[in-house]
Design a protein that fits this description.
The chain has three domains: 4-108, Probable tRNA modification gtpase trme, domain 1 (Gyrase A, domain 2), CATH 3.30.1360; 129-208 and 385-444, Four Helix Bundle (Hemerythrin (Met), subunit A) (Up-down Bundle); 222-378, 3-Layer(aba) Sandwich (Rossmann fold), CATH 3.40.50. Helix 5 (140-150) runs antiparallel to helix 7 and helix 6 (153-177) runs antiparallel to helix 13. The chain is flat and about 85 Å long. The strands form two sheets. The protein has a seven-stranded mixed beta sheet with strand order 3-4-5-6-2-1-7, covered by helices on one side. A six-stranded mixed beta sheet has the order 9-10-8-11-12-13, sandwiched between helices. The relative contact order is 0.12. A hairpin with a 2-residue loop joins strand 9 (257-263) and strand 10. It has helices spanning 26-33, 90-102, 112-119, 125-136, 140-150, 153-177, 188-217, 231-239, 282-297, 313-321, 361-371, 387-408, 413-431, 437-444; strands spanning 4-7, 16-22, 34-36, 49-57, 60-70, 81-87, 106-107, 219-224, 257-263, 266-272, 300-306, 327-332, 350-352. It is of the alpha/beta class. The structure holds guanosine-5'-diphosphate. Guanosine-5'-diphosphate (GDP) binds at residues 225, 227-233, 246-248, 253, 275, 332-333, 335-336, 354-356.
């Protein structure tokens, strides 16, 4: 396999840049450009050691810096790796890289170092995906989930289910191949409990997915209500600072403003929308359309009403619009004398608050946790990083369920075996142990060059 090189740090000016070389010729090429100060010989450096020196090409000193050597298989890629750190200027870094190319290294493709790590058994496919997620993580939850994935938690769970399936396949094969032997532990009845157990474990992994996605990505939430009910005030109170413009003139919030609010361990991606009401004003009309769109797209709507006034036509319009959408009714202005008829809100979660005074806001957080079934999760569940993994697990569950039905209906063992085989294959595809090139290509296409 070719020796490849790339700049692993971002293409921007910074204190330090790092150029990574990986492959059989990595150390030889590094030795040609990197001249240690002192007596160290690059070719004789041990793995996991570092030396200070200058970077020279064609008789010209390009920079000084550090060389770190990792020897196969104890490196990120599993191959010999040389990493040169030089000063973080764009031009100098490119010059060093060009020198390395001139000496025989080839440009590394996006994600190639991690792909090589996967090929050399240093990482499972799920762990490689976790590396991409660590790089792209925008918040604490996403980072935690990615790190758990990288530690291989999900991999171990999936692997243990696929091992059980392979064991069942072995038992069925023994039963079919040696019909005359007395193999009670291998018969169709005997493997049923094992299959039921696999089914349950897969179901649990899948059910954790939704909760996990919420911890990773947050809940998109629209704050809706007619003008002046106190949506912006509520949003600001929840966020603890002024974000939307609050005035007492109706219709001041014309854009959809987005903010992120932490509720317990969950991020609410809040959208404060223009008030819902019929309007002749062009800008307001656009705002109202955006509000309707935000309600349609949100996973949760906080429908705000003014408790100090009777329910108006616009309020009724909002109640109509949020039918079928997960929502919480927030009756605001609880500090004023109440005129709203609460009996009009049947079978919904109704919270009475005063955004102005900051009263009752915690109830909103509690309701969100309750509504999304997050209360049971004191920690982050181990979840799939992406739909690819989820779909593999769904497929495995489908085949295991079909195998259980087939066994119960007394179908041929051949038919059952094929179904269990398919289930095992789906899990091996998830972990990458049996992934096609297309799947692997797709996974690594999400990486940046240099990783
Ligand atoms: P929006 O149009 O729904 O975004 O409403 P705003 O947040 O701009 O609030 C409209 C008016 O209602 C402002 O004068 C707020 O100060 C006032 N307001 C908002 N929440 C409360 C509340 O809980 N109690 C009282 N008394 N006034 C409030």
């Amino acid at each position: 396999m070719a020796t490849v090189a790339a700049i692993s740090t971002p293409p921007a000016v910074g204190g330090i840049s790092l150029i990574r070389i990986s492959g059989e010729r990595a150390i030889e090429i590094a030795a040609k450009v990197f001249h240690p100060f002192g007596s160290t010989e690059v070719a004789k450096m041990k793995g996991h050691t570092c030396v200070y020196g200058k970077i020279v090409y064609g008789g010209e000193t390009l920079d000084d810096g550090l060389l770190t050597v990792f020897l196969a298989p104890r490196s990120y890629t599993g191959e010999d790796v040389a990493e040169i750190s030089c000063h973080g200027g764009i031009y100098v870094t490119r010059r060093v890289l060009r020198a390395i190319y001139s000496l025989g290294a080839e440009p590394a493709q996006a994600g190639e170092f991690t792909r090589r790590a996967f090929m050399n058994g240093k990482l499972s496919l799920t762990q490689a995906e976790a590396v991409a997620d660590i790089i792209s993580a925008e918040g604490e939850n996403a980072l935690k989930s990615a790190n758990m994935m990288r530690d291989g938690e999900l991999f171990r769970k999936i692997k243990s289910v696929s091992d059980s399936l392979v064991h069942v396949l072995g038992s069925l094969a023994a039963w079919t191949d040696y019909p005359d032997e007395d193999l009670p532990e291998a018969g169709p009845e005997a493997v049923l409990p094992a299959l039921e157990d696999c089914k349950q474990r897969l179901e649990k992994i899948i059910s954790d997915y939704d909760a996990g996605m919420i911890f990773r990505e947050g809940i998109s939430c629209a704050i809706a209500g007619r003008p002046n009910v106190g949506k912006s005030t509520l949003m600001n109170a929840l966020l603890g600072y002024e974000r939307s413009i609050v005035t007492s003139a109706a219709g001041t919030t014309r854009d959809v403003v987005e903010e992120r609010l932490k509720v317990g361990d969950v991020i609410l991606r809040l959208r404060d929308t223009a008030g819902l009401r019929d309007s002749d004003n062009e800008a307001e009309k656009i705002g109202v359309r955006l509000a309707e769109k935000a309600i349609g797209e949100a996973q949760l709507v906080l429908a705000v009403f003014d408790g100090s006034e009777p329910l108006s036509e616009s309020d009724r319009l909002l109640l109509e619009k949020i039918k079928g959408v997960r929502h919480i009714v927030v009756i605001n202005k609880g500090d004023l004398p109440q005129k709203i008829d609460k009996s009009l809100f049947s079978d919904e979660i109704i919270l009475e608050v005063s955004a102005k005074e900051g009263d009752g806001l915690k109830k909103i957080a509690d309701a969100v946790y309750e509504m999304f079934g997050l209360s049971g999760y004191s920690q982050h569940p181990e979840v799939f990083a992406n739909e690819r993994q989820k779909l593999c697990c769904d497929r495995a569950l489908k085949y295991v369920s079909e195998a259980i039905s087939a066994l119960s209906l007394g179908e041929t063992l051949d038919a059952v075996t094929v179904l269990i085989d398919c289930a095992a294959d789906a899990l091996l595809e998830l972990t990458g142990e049996k992934a096609t090139d297309a799947v692997v290509d797709d996974v690594f296409s999400r990486f940046c060059v240099g990783k």
